[in-house]
Each structure stands twice: as structure tokens, then as C-alpha cells.
Amino acid sequence: MPIVQFVPFSSLVQPTLWHKLTDLKIDVLKLSDAALPITASYSIGRSVHDRETGQEIALPCNLSVGSESFEHDHKPPHGSVSATGTLKNYNTIEEFKAADKTALFNQEAQDVWNNIIKTRDTSQLSRFLLITFADLKKYKYYYWFAFPAFVSKPAWEIGEEGWRKASEEFELSSIHAQLRGQSSPLPYFLIKKDASGGVSIAPLESYEEFYASTSPEAQTIGFVDPSADPNNPGWPLRNLLAYLRALYPATTSTLRILRWKDSEVPSTPNASWKSQVGTLKVGDAAPIDPALGRPTAVGWEKNPQGKLGPRVADLAPMMDPTRLAAQAVDLNLKLMRWRILPALDLDKISSTRCLLLGAGTLGCYVSRALMGWGVRTITFVDSGKVSFSNPVRQPLFEFADCLDGGKPKAECAAASLKKIFPGINSSGHTLAIPMPGHPIPPSPASLAQAKADVAKLEKLIDEHDVVFLLMDSRESRWLPTVIGAAKGKASLIIIVLNAALGFDTYLVMRHGARASSLSTGADGKPHQRLGCYYCNDIVAPADSLTDRTLDQMCTVTRPGIAPIAAATAVELLASLLQHPEGLYSPAPPTTTAAAGAALDSDQEGINSVLGLVPHQLRGFLNQFRTMPLVGAAYDRCTGCSETVLKAYETEGFSMLLKAFNDAKYLETLTGLDKLFQEGEDALNAVDWHEEGDEDDF
Amino acid sequence: MPIVQFVPFSSLVQPTLWHKLTDLKIDVLKLSDAALPITASYSIGRSVHDRETGQEIALPCNLSVGSESFEHDHKPPHGSVSATGTLKNYNTIEEFKAADKTALFNQEAQDVWNNIIKTRDTSQLSRFLLITFADLKKYKYYYWFAFPAFVSKPAWEIGEEGWRKASEEFELSSIHAQLRGQSSPLPYFLIKKDASGGVSIAPLESYEEFYASTSPEAQTIGFVDPSADPNNPGWPLRNLLAYLRALYPATTSTLRILRWKDSEVPSTPNASWKSQVGTLKVGDAAPIDPALGRPTAVGWEKNPQGKLGPRVADLAPMMDPTRLAAQAVDLNLKLMRWRILPALDLDKISSTRCLLLGAGTLGCYVSRALMGWGVRTITFVDSGKVSFSNPVRQPLFEFADCLDGGKPKAECAAASLKKIFPGINSSGHTLAIPMPGHPIPPSPASLAQAKADVAKLEKLIDEHDVVFLLMDSRESRWLPTVIGAAKGKASLIIIVLNAALGFDTYLVMRHGARASSLSTGADGKPHQRLGCYYCNDIVAPADSLTDRTLDQMCTVTRPGIAPIAAATAVELLASLLQHPEGLYSPAPPTTTAAAGAALDSDQEGINSVLGLVPHQLRGFLNQFRTMPLVGAAYDRCTGCSETVLKAYETEGFSMLLKAFNDAKYLETLTGLDKLFQEGEDALNAVDWHEEGDEDDF
């Protein structure tokens, strides 16, 4: 008699499985390579009609996995049955290759065996193993399936009649109806005829009760057969046979098997039922003795080359490049949470909308560091055009941007960000920020323009969470400082970050937040309100731009200063956003020793998960040194004092106009003018920030 | 009688004048606005024939200036005469506008007058004034000429005959020959006929001697006339008349004037001499009395709109944009020397040829900072391709570079630099650097490839002055460390700069130079030889790449770390290059206080003009802190010890091959293996650089 050949499972992996695995790996599994439960499904085998030869061609016995395979209580699709398995994803290709595959396979086979002999549960009969390595940088997935199946010795043979039409022996429409009636699909089932010739079915687990009064010859065991091959049954039959031989050896050396192959009742008179029945015998067989241990198992899947080896799914070519880029950028950030900083709140950073006032050297470098942190909304404001000296220092511009008079810097910078990362939400606004000491000409048109410019800046600040002051003059920082500080009391909290350059020095600072209920420490006492850019000044900002010589007009700086200051400003923002008190986080002590101690002990909530959140940092390239500073808010400050903020809130544009037009207005308003008269010494304390001269320190 | 009208000078500024002024301003004048001597020239007036009307149209009386105008002993072109003047260039447009033009003009007129009455020298009769403001960022030049000419009261009148052909009175070919025979061209000259009817000429200065026996009626005064207008003589005649009236009042109230207008002898019979003669009278004139002071002067040039006001030359549209970019980039750097650092040797930096090993985050940022310093030769080596996660962190790549599998990084980075600045000499080489612990497969092809790769790297290092180690693994730095250290003894000195990143930390260092005669301090004692990247290690570099998990494969860092480390490395190089001892400059003390003191006192030559030149800098973003370190060279170092260097120099590639293939070779060679056995403790001192974990510090 011919030996029964079984058609092995063929894995069918939907790309959604890999997408889901990618997400799981990055967000949940991280470095874990613990085994995961996974569910697959298979259905009745299908064949296609070959028009040329007129023959039916059987399709492979697909075991299908997809994104749903990771769902805990996944129900298989209609007409399919579930198979459960184990997924083991390795961290490196080397681990994947070096994995002890024999041990893994045997473990899985043992699980199947244990389920048979200990619980008689059939749900684990088609267990499978999937080992993977996901190269998330290249979207290449290495994988290998195993479908452990027990080997029968000697082999099963099929009677001379072979597989014959089951419809000649059973009323298949009744079986079909009963299978449909199950609450969950039965991959295996028992069949018997009653006295009137009707059939009834039952789950395999009820073998003893169901066949209690049925002679072995009248027993038929059915299974959902994924094989459409008329001569060879599918893989699930192997473990079904092993199950029966192990548990019911006395009655199973000859078995009538129904290969259930009808997902639908034949619809046309010409069509016929496809299910087949055959009689299988295992010759001279000693029954499988569970006490002797489980039988040998086989079942590693061959790869498309027909060899025992892993397969590769390369998803990169089929993915939308823009989406690939977005995932790649996220990946780099999420990896931080795998090992180093599980507590890092990346969304808090990436969802922060940043307004960059100035698209010069600082603005370009700041935007790049923000993109590195995954920030998705970046808006530039600048009034200039790209000039020939810009590209070598301003990393969003190139030579072509300088031609024909130069592109507008803000719009050009925004467009560059999109070229770098299409997923960014970037925009640019050409806008001249009105400044104290730069009077607005009294013509109605000039006034209307200034009013419109102020309104536009107010609106832009409203629409963002952070304002970076990255201009090249002292007085241009005044208006956004006032607006930003005023908003600090409204529902919207604006973080103002400031970076300014000298020749080989820089200042990076966060403006202190206006008093608020949030601004108390753990001890209930109010935090010291931190100062703004103008808090150390005893003169109001005024015109420093007119009458500048060339070396004062150009920012004459050591080229390394801008990237250092810009990156420091962005990292200060990142640390600030991670601090539970955010904008109101207190400044750490300024001596390095004390700060180091604070970092070690995390005393009084000074630390964010990223470390200290200083108030001001001054850097000195001639010593390669950075110095933290803390400065309190000054009640006569022309930028953030309550006097100024309230005048702005009460009078609006008319107050601002006074500040622009009248060189003395702000000093009179704040009372600085009286202080000023107290001594000529005051005159020497010129603001250093744009002077480009370290001697002023 | 009709009043004589004089045709004023028209300035003709060659663009070369502005280019020369630009160079002078940037390199020599800097912030100075002191008056400069300048030379112009004018020639005999020219006219063109209007074919439509058949008339001759006189061209303007051009006074021409160009780059030669700044030359000290400039000779005017053939057929032209010189005029000297004063150029005053202002630093700002505001100063230019606010200049006291009346005072400047009167000063110039006074100089002319003083020359007349004190020296009788005619060379200053056509003095002129040029005030300018050069907007070097936009290549716009604002300028205004004045040609002071004295006003005669009453005005000069011309006889009824007007200007008639001089050839009817004089043998002009003789005058032409005599003018040609002068050693330097005569703008003004005296003419008299001798008894035989021949003419002779003499310089104006010899009036008294030459005309000693000539009656006033027989005297004729000639001048080179820039006016081609037949009716109106050119501007130089005004001051000639004033000269004559002031010095020889008795004989000059009626004057015969020859307008010399023949640069060539008429060549064809139909052509005729162009020079004219006329008799001028100043009616009822009291002679100019020098004792009464100089007469009123006029002569500011009108602008093209016909108004008294400055002109603008906008050179930007006519300049080659690539050259514009090169000048703009240089300008930003040279401005450093105007005020802040006159001693800065920019050429020393810009002529340094830099080899960047690694075109990733560090490589991209390093190249940008180098470009900012004006470095013109930048070469990248990388073996990778641009991937989707790169552009947001690596500022030479954009989204489009990632498509179709990604461009080769080294070549793509080099092309980007050219897009930023076309004047750069950048190139990229896709090359995998062989590494210890990564054995070369024994096949002849693999061996040949490794040998070729080593040879290529050796050649590249030979062709550069500085090697930056910017890779992402410890062991890939070994080969260039050895080659670079070995070259340190050859005629070629290689500076090796190293930057490595952790999650929120970085290391930037310069490798110490091999012992040399240069490596002694001012006291004659040898400097301490500084260590290399491997000097602190007690195990040889080995395979750290295989079997890395995703977060180890990707450089998981705070995005701000790379720009800070890269800029710091470049600034360290800039400081090093400015130090008189360069590569051999000693490291400053490591405590900030001591370093600060060193900076202040410039003790023992520790300072460069840019400040300190540390050996190592370690940065910590969690504290926003930078720490200088000094490490001595280690005599068992696997990277730079003499044992290793000599083995490399003696055995060449075969020694390197042992290091690549045999994990223990370097440790045995240096004797580290014996040390290693001394204690298991050693095992814990794992190199931290690529660990991405600050806990290892």
C-alpha cells in the first residue's frame, strides 16, 4: 500500500506583520528577546484551474500571519482555523544565526506533545515556531518558520482505493451545517452515522464519549485540510494521527479519515463536493507509548531556494519613502528609551511647536537640532535674503539660494527643512520686527505696516509653544521678549529661549516665567523668578544697528560658536521640557561642584530626566569652558517687569509705539532713568552680547 | 563777447577700482578711514560720428580711475596725463552721508591754491576728491567726485572769432613731436614762434624764462583738452587760467589759448588737425591777488539724474557669482582681523587640507565648521550609504539622497559641500577601513582588497595635513591612528583629531605628536608626549560591531551632542594651528582656575592667539559642562607606542594584517597581555567611548 505523503505548511507573511513587529520592537519589546505568543490561521486548501492544461493546480498549504497575529483574542477569519505559535525576535543578526534552533524546535515539539498527553487539548496540535531578526534601519526582516510534526514509525499507508469522494459516503451538507454551527471553528472533528443514516459530529476531545457505542469501523475522523492536492493530505493530519495513536492506541491502527475541503456548499448542479475520505493503516505498529517519550518531530520550513534556511522580507522597496523617513527618524529617538532613558517623554518634545526668530547662523543650527529631537512644527521669521557669505555658516542655505539677489531667508529655510525631512511642518515669514530706538515714520502707511507686523508677531507667538530669540541685535529681541513674558500669565505658556554670540563667546538662556500658581517649590515657597535678557541692563534697548562698521554688521565670530550655542539652546529646551515643572523649574546652583552634587542626588527636584536645567549658560571658546549663571528677574527690567507687561497689556500697540519711537520711554516707564542719573559709571556697563568682544566680560 | 563755458570732468570708474578698494579695505585699511592718495588720468577729448545726422558728437570729458589708481608711481597710459587726488572711504553709509563735504572740498581747493602760489607746481592743478562708502556685503559702492575749479570774477570771454583751427597759425606737427619728446606728458605748456616761423614749447613752470623776450601778444598757452566740444574747452583750463592770473597778472588779462586736441598726426590727406586756438579776455579785471586768499571754487560732480549727489556702482550683477561667494566667505573671516585679532593667521587655517574619516553626524558638522573657517580642501572617507534616518542629524544630506537605496555617503557629502560653496575642493572616497578584530578572509581577492584599502588610506593621509577620526566604532580608528602617528616623524606632520560620542557625552582630543626635535619647551626640556585615543586602554581594539543591538548600531545620542563635539574639534584645530608650536604645543593645566590663569598671563607659551589648546575635552550635556583632561602617551599603547609604530614601519602591511586577523597580536606585541594577566580587575575598565552610557565615566 502507498505511504501517505503530507503536504507541509507554507508560511504566508503579510507585510502588516512586519510593521506591527517594528512598532512592538521599538515601543514595547525594546531590547527584550523573550518569546511572544502569536496566532496564525489556515483554511481549506484552494486550487486554481489551469486553462492551458485544463488541470486543477493545488495552491500551497498556507499558514498565514499578519498584524492581527499579535492580538490576544484574535478570531480567525471566516472559514479559517487558528494555530498558535511562538515568536522569538533576536536583537542582532548574529544572535539570530547563532540561535540553538534544535533546542527551540524540540521545545516547541515537546509543548505539542505535552498538550496531547496531559490535557488532550487539540488546540495546540498545529503549534508553530517563528524566529526573526528585524533590521529596522533597512526594513529587512529575516525569519524562519517551523511546524513541528511527529514522525510515525512505521509510516502510515493508505488503502488501495486511495482518497475517494466523501459525498458518496456521507451527507456532506449536514456536516457542513454542523461545522458552521460551532461557536468556534473545529480544526478536527469526529463523525458517526446514526441509525437513520444521518451524520453527527463532535470535537476530537470527546472521542471516548462520542464513540462509546460506535465500532472502530464506523468511526471517521475529520480535519480541516489546507491541502488542495487530491492525493496528499495537509500537514495537520500528522499530529492528528499522532494524537490518536498516543491516546487511543487500541482503536486507531486503522483509521477512516475525512479530509474536509468544502468551505461552501456546492452552488451549481455541475459543481461537486471536494472533501475526500480515505482509510489509513499503520502496519505492524506498536502503539505510541507516551511513557517512552515523544516521537521524533520534523518541520523546519524550506526557503524559496528549496533549502533549509531562513527567508528575508525586504520591505524597503514597497514602502512610501516619506513614511520610511518618518519611521527612521522616530526610530533613532525611540532607541533612547530602550536602555538609557526609559522615562524620557519624547512626545513632549516632538509635539512642541517652535518659533525661530532669525533664520541666520543660529536659526539654521537650532532648527537642525530641533529636527534631530523629532520636533515637527518649526516656523522661521526673518526679514533678510540669503547672501553669498551665508551658506558656509548657515546650514540650511546653499550657493544657488544666493543668486538673483538671494531668496528670502525665512521661506528658504522652511523649504530646506522640507527637503531634509518631508514630514516636517515648516513655514517661513518675511517680517521685520519693530524695535525700540528705531522710530516708525509717522506716515499712515508706515504706522499701518508696524501695526500689522506687531499683530503678526503676536499671532505667531500665540500659535507656538516656544519662541527662540536668534537675531543679531539686542533691540530686536525686545518685542518678542515682552509678548512672550506677557503670555506667560495667560493660558498659553510661552518658553522663550535666547541665544546670542560674541566673537568666541555665547550666551544661552531661558527667560524666567511670570509669577504663577505653578511657580512654587516643593516646600510651598515661591521659586525665585528668573531674569530675562534685559534684566541685567540699566539702559533700555536702543538703536545699535545704524552706523555699524562692516565688522559690526557681519557677525564676526569663530565659526564653531554658533553650532555650539544653537545645540546648547535646543538641549536646554529638551531638558526643560522633561522637567516636571517645565518653564517653572528652578535653576540649579551655579558652581560646578554644587551642580554635580545636585545631579547625583537629584535634590529638590532640580533634575530633569535629561539632567540639569540651568538658567543661563555662557560659553568661552578661548578656554573651551561653559559657565552656568543664575540671574533673578529685575523689577525695573525693560523687557519683563510687571510695569512693562501691564502697560503693554493695557495700552497694546500704542504703548509699543511709544517704545519704538521714544528713546527714553522705557527708561522713564521703569524708573531706570532715575537710576541712570545716579552715576556716570552706569554708562560703562554696555551690553556685551552683540559686541563681539570678549573684553567686555 | 561770449562768456567761456567749461565742460566739467565726468568721472569714469573702472570696476577694477572697486575690486582693488575692496581688497585694500579688507586686508589693509580695515577700520581706517584716513585719506588715501589716488591717481586718475584724462586724455584728449574724443568724439564720435553720428551717421544719421552727419554730425560729430563730443564724448564726456572723462577722468578715469581704476585699480592702477592706488599704485604709488603709476604712469598714465600713452596719450593721457595724470591727475592726483584724495580718496576718503567711510566705514558706514551714515558716516558717508553725514560727512562735512564743504570742509573736505574746501580743503582740496585750498591744496590746489597753495600749490599755485607757493610752489608754482602745475602737477596739482587738476586735483580731485573722491569720497566713498563700500558696502562689501552687497558689492555696492557709493561714491562722489569733486573736481575743484576756481571761479573767475568777472568771467572769461572769448573773442568774436571764437575757437579757430590752430593749424592755420602753428606748425602743429612740430608741437606734436615736441610734446611726444617729453619725458613725462605735459598737461599744460607754453608756445612761442621763433624768428624763422618755427615753434618751440616749454613747461608752464618756465613762463618767466621762456617768455622773457616774448611780447604778451606772441605768447600762446596750450593745454591737453579733454573736451571734444568745438565750442567749449574742458575743465583743466579753469585752474590754468587761475594759475596764470594769480602768478602773472600783468601779462594775462588777454590770453591766446591752444586747446591741444591731437593725439595723433592726421594720417590721411582728408583728415585735418583738430586742435583749436582762441583769444580769451577777462574784462575789467583786477588781477587775482594771492594775498586776498583763494578764489571761490566749484566742482562737485552731478549724478546721472543731473543732481548734486552721490552715485552708486552695483557690482553684484556683473560679478561671477562663484567669485562673489568666495569673496564673501573670505570677508567674514578677514573681518576678525580688523578689530579683534589682528594677529590671526587665517591662511594657516584655510590652507590646511583636512581628511575626514567618517561622513556621518560628526563628519557633516565638522566639514561645515571647517568651511566656516575658510578651509578649502576637505576629503571624506566613508563606506556607507545615506539612509532615511540620516538627513535630520547629518547636515549634508537630504531626503532625496536616501532614495533608491541611498547615495554613497562620502561622495554625496563632497557634492553637498560644492553645492554650498562652489569654490571648495572636496572629494569623497567609499572605502572600508580594515580593523583589528575583523579578520580579512584568506581568499586572494579579499587580501588584495585589504591591501589596496590600506594603501589608499596611507595615500590619503599623505595628501592631507589633518586627519579627523569621526567614525562610529573604536576599532576603526586604530589604522589611521597608527598611520598618523608614524607620519609624525616623517617630513609630513599629521595632526590627528578625534571626536567620539556617548548618549549625552563627548570626547574631543588631539593625538600627541611623536617625539621630535620640535618637541621641547621654551626651557629646552622635552614636552610631555601627549596620549592618543588608545593610550588609556589596557586591551587592544577588537570587534565591537558584530552582534550589536539596534540601539548600539545606531548612534543613540542627544541630537545636540554631535554639533557641539564637531564644532569643538574644529575650534581645537584652529587654536592648535595658531599656536607657534602647532602639533607640539603643550597642553594647558586641566583645572579651570589654572587654565584661566594661564590664559590671562600667557604663561610659558601655552596660549595661541585664539586661546588655550587643550589635549582632551570631555563634555557632559546632563550638566552642560566641559572638562579639560591631559593624558600622557603610554609606552604599551596599541595605537601610538614606538613598538607598534616601528613594527608598522618595518613590516608594513604584513604587520597590519596580523593586527586585523589575530585578536591577541597587538596585546602580545605591546606587552599588554602580561599586564592583563595581573588582575581580573582590568577586565572592568572597558573603553567607554562608544558605549553611549555615562555611567561608565
Structural description of this entry:
Two copies of one chain form a homodimer. By secondary structure, chain A is of the alpha/beta class. The first copy, chain A, has three domains: 9-151 and 296-318, Cytidine Deaminase, domain 2 (3-Layer(aba) Sandwich), CATH 3.40.140; 156-292, Ubiquitin-like modifier-activating enzyme ATG7 C-terminal domain (Cytidine Deaminase, domain 2), CATH 3.40.140; 349-538 and 561-637, Rossmann fold, CATH 3.40.50. Helices cover 29% and strands 20% of the residues of chain A. In chain A, strands 20-19-18-21-22-23-24-25 form an eight-stranded mixed β-sheet, sandwiched between helices. In chain A, a hairpin with a 5-residue loop joins β11 and β12. In chain A, α13 (478-487) crosses α17. The radius of gyration of chain A is 38 Å and the shape is elongated. The interface between A and B is large, with 93 and 92 residues. Chains A, B: Residues 336-582 form the THIF-type NAD/FAD binding fold domain. Chains A, B: This is Ubiquitin-like modifier-activating enzyme ATG7. Chains A, B: It holds the Pfam family ATG7_N.
